[in-house]
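User: Hey, my collaborator sent me this sequence without any context and asked if I could get a structure. I don't really work with proteins. Can you help?
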Amino acid sequence: LSNNIIKDVRKEGFTTPPLIDWDGKASEILGVIKSNLCNIFVIDKHGFLRYKMVEKYSQEALNKIKDYIKKLAFP
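Assistant: No problem. I've predicted the 3D structure and written it out in structure-token form, which is a compact way to encode the shape of the chain:
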């Protein structure tokens, strides 16, 4: 699944690869969120957190984040 997301990101014209934390382990290690939910963070090129989504993985959740990234990258 994550390979498809990376392909989609590149196809949309983004050059920065996503860090995907589907099970929340990276967030727990970083001390950001302690849960077994999908944690998605959008960090801009200046290092600012622009969007945070924490919920169970679903196609709807994936579509929400893809739509937000498109709006952010191509206003």
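In plain terms: Strands lie at 38-43, 49-55. You can pass these tokens on to your collaborator as they are.
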